[in-house]
Design goal:
The chain is of the alpha+beta class. It contains four helices and eight strands; from the N terminus they run ααββββαββββα.
Length: 164
């Protein structure tokens, strides 16, 4: 009878671990829980590390020129406020290409902040904006853009304003 009972248990569950059915159920439930946790972790990792496009909806002032808008989602990667000729700051923004155009929402926001584009001074990947005799250059690179504020322009403008 013992052999028949053992064969029935093997047939019913498929596998016997240490001769006890309860251990099989525990091991299977632990295995399912482990697989579920690994799947949840991978899902979080994939969704958190995806390079989502910026929404171009929320802005703040640039590090080198507070009156010039920068998407809040852009992260500052490099800055040089002590350069003798110009201040600049580079922002990382996934999805930008060097010779691409600025998103329309960003162009509208720049205009809303009072900046006008000087199309005669622009080059292939650099745009020039003016506001109250202040000049800002915006240069697009792959996955980033740089804002330059020439110091010579600041000094020239100050000199013109102070002259009689």
């Amino acid at each position: 009878m013992i052999k028949i009972g053992l064969l029935q248990r093997i047939h019913r569950r498929g596998i016997i671990y240490n001769g006890k059915e309860e251990n099989i159920i525990k091991i299977r439930s632990q295995w399912y829980l482990f697989c579920l946790l690994v799947a949840a972790f991978l899902l979080l990792l994939i969704s958190g590390c995806s390079s989502a496009e910026p929404t171009w909806k929320v802005y703040e002032g640039a590090a080198v020129e507070k009156s010039f808008p920068v998407p809040k989602e852009a992260s500052k990667t490099e800055t040089a406020p002590s350069n003798a000729k110009m201040d600049y700051v580079r922002y990382s923004v996934p999805g930008l290409k060097e010779n691409s155009t600025l998103p329309a929402a960003y162009e509208k926001e720049i205009e809303a902040w009072g900046w006008t584009e000087n199309k005669e001074a622009q080059t292939q990947s650099t745009r020039v904006f003016i506001k109250n005799n202040q000049v800002v250059q915006l240069s697009l690179q792959k996955n980033s853009f740089t804002i330059y504020v020439p110091k010579t322009e600041k000094a020239a403008v100050r000199g013109l304003k102070n002259s009689p």
